[in-house]
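batch_manifest entry 22 of 60
target: Na(+)/H(+) antiporter NhaA
source organism: Microbacterium allomyrinae
requested by: lab member K.T.
priority: normal
notes from requester: please return tokens only, no post-processing; we will run our own comparison against the previous entry in this batch. if the run fails, retry once and flag.
--- input ---
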Amino acid sequence: MSLLRSARFPAIVLLLAASLGLIVANSAIGPAVDDVMHAYLGIPGVFELSLSHWIKDGLLAVFFFVVAVELQFELTNGQLNSARKALQPAIAAAGGVLVPIAIYVAVAWGSDATNGWPIPTATDIAFALGVLAVFGKGLPSALRVFLLALAILDDIVGIVFIAVLFTADVNVWMLAGAAVAVVAFGVLSRQLGGRGHVAISIVLIGLAIATWVLVLLSGVHATIAGVVLGLAMAQQPALRTRHALEPWVNGIVLPVFAFSAALVVIPAVAPSELSPAFWGVLVALPVGKIVGITVFGWLSLRLGSRGAPPELAFGDLLAAGALGGIGFTVSLLLSELAFADAPALRDQATLGVLAGSVISLILAGGLVSWRAWHHRSKVRDATTEARTA
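--- output ---
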């Protein structure tokens, strides 16, 4: 279990799962696996979803619950609990959202792929922190703090996009029922720790399932249920629940989603025949993120105390920008949602996410290694000077 809580291992598992999905989709068993993913499961005539939808709407709701618990903690006790702390990563995050959107729209303008503009806005926090852990020995803690805050703010943007852009024909009564269930969940979670906590836990699980079903039936994307439950739960029980769920999310939920999302047949076409959905994401993730985060981050660091040196050097911001380009999980979900009615565009956008994230991963590995070497050299030089003084 401790391995699945580490920063490095989950990123490796995700990459392997996505690679396996691509290999399977383009193998002889690809069509059979695709049929399985579209098989319907549930209570016939009452409540049925395809296996693919159980993964995207059900399993990912657990992932978003864990994300929301971390967000709740950061907003109240962590790196985003004051306007001063949140300002600089917020400005950098804005650049990391606006510049990729601008690049994607410029590439896809006038085509049927313009709806995919939210796809390159996400940062995969598990991957980014994994690369930082592998290559970043010796980096200042300020860079990790900055990246964590940046990725969390990116998650907020992704959640807003999912809730606002991909909601249609809202059933107000179902949504109202979900709101009642969330309030009951939040109130009851504050009773944990006393007598009868086992019974309370069982009721909380029932309320969580009811919330998910009601949100799904309301027309709002079901992953939003995980978000509101994570924000509503009392903080200490929420943190304990997150700790218990983390290995399962890292070891099962995210790899299964990565595998299913990467079940894409690589089109046998010339590069010139690929859709703007592919090219837009491919360029916007590595280029848009590194430019947006670096430039806006550099400007944000100039808003500190006058005359005080910035916490992060320009090179550190370049590394953070490259890490931000690893979109992966949320970008894959956004590509599924943006092109839900256009499977060919969805598949090409998915390939763009995978290729763009890999490019960003390679860039980030190089830049993070360079910055880590730079900071270790500074420490060694300072130690040598101190000894010879």
